[in-house]
Fold this sequence. Notes:
Shape: globular
Strand order of the largest sheet: 3-2-4-5-1-10-11-14-15
Number of helices: 10
Strand content: 15-25%
Oligomer: single chain
Helix content: 25-40%
Structural class: alpha/beta
Order of helices and strands: EHHEHEHHEHHEHEEEHEEEEEEEH
Number of strands: 15
Largest sheet: 9 strands, mixed
CATH class: Alpha Beta
Number of domains: 1
Amino acid sequence: MKHLIPRGKLIAIGGNEDKGTYPTVRSKRQYYLNFFELGILKRVVSESGKLDPRIEVVTTASMIPQEVGPIYIASFAMLNCHNVGIMDIRTPQDARQPEYLARLLAADVVMFSGGNQSRLREMFGETDFLDTMTRRYYAEPNFVIAGTSAGAMAMSQHMIRGGSVPDALLKGAVKMGIGLSLAPPAIIDSHFVKRGRFGRLIEAVALYPKLIGIGLGEDTGVLITEGHLVETIGSNLVIILDGHELAHNNVAAAKKGTTLSIENFKMHVLAKGNVYCMTERKFYVSKEAVASAAC
């Protein structure tokens, strides 16, 4: 699979995507967008090519699936999408049930909720569910795999499992693991700007300098097409970290807990509509600019 160009689409969301509710006097949370006009979930639906696609929400990563599932059902209903199912897969044995595989084969969109990204690999690794989803992603142009927060981070092959923000840029602050390998050229981090996760993504990319670091702000995401074109969607920012031209990098030699020393990191800041090409490692202001450059 790794040498083929995926025909499907990945949508990785940084977390706290606007699900159609609005601030009240008691609300402390800031909403940046009119959900109905510009929301990320609307883009998830539109990329399927259908007005009312079959959507399966996988709540496996969450420890409160009984709350998360109904929120997504209500959110998609606001977009006139009523063909939504919840897959609350709790064990690897659940993931192997023929019922879930049949539902996966019938889905136009599969969306992974937030929670603990390591659970996704634990439940789906080495299963027909993951194999079938990956095969559809590579073969079907309008098949959409979306994930928010943990669901986005798990798309990486080399996945961030966790990491201490206070200890950022000290060797060992980031914890790495194996993800679902849907976006092998990238290491994806979420809640990136508000939670100050620059340091752990820098260390992750320093560990794997041939990969591209993608830091997703909240209520912000990326649409990845052809396996390498990264378009920013949503209301906030996406940070791209490129370590291909690192000169000095002591991440391998440094002892745990000691300061990292890294030379020549390249960073890009993407707002809505900007595109980054992971193969060419280039920033484009828009999809039209990408088309004219034939990336």
